[in-house]
Amino acid sequence: MKIKETFEKNIAILTVSGNMMGGPETAALHDKVKSLIEDGIKNVVIDLKGVKWMNSSGLGVLMSCFGSLTNAGGNLKLASIAEKVQSVLMITKMIQFFENYENAERAVASFEQEQG
Fold first, then answer.
1. How far is the C-alpha of 114 from the C-alpha of 99, rounded, in Å?
2. Which tens digit of pLDDT belongs to each residue from 64-88?
3. What is the domain-level CATH number for residue 52?
4. Which member of 9, 37, 86, 94 has the lowest number of beta carbons within 10 Å of its beta carbon?
């Protein structure tokens, strides 16, 4: 799993590729989010366009990221969720925790509308 980090204004976009199946690679996503919070970045988009599959460990990491950002007064939004990952989120009812958008640009725009 790889994580690419970009910024648009005060919003971090983490583009993830590979499978989110637990282990140190998946945990690195939460570590990255915690690092962003320490740097004062509290609004994050996780772009999942490169993630083809996610198991319960991957879901757990997304929930951990969501919790950390919420506790810091920020927010997490998901973008570009593949069909298989979307079905996992729906079956587990985790989809209700996350705002999700068809792409990262729309997720970023939704933050700007909230702040505007």
1. 13
2. 999 999 999 999 999 999 999 999 9
3. 3.30.750.24
4. 9
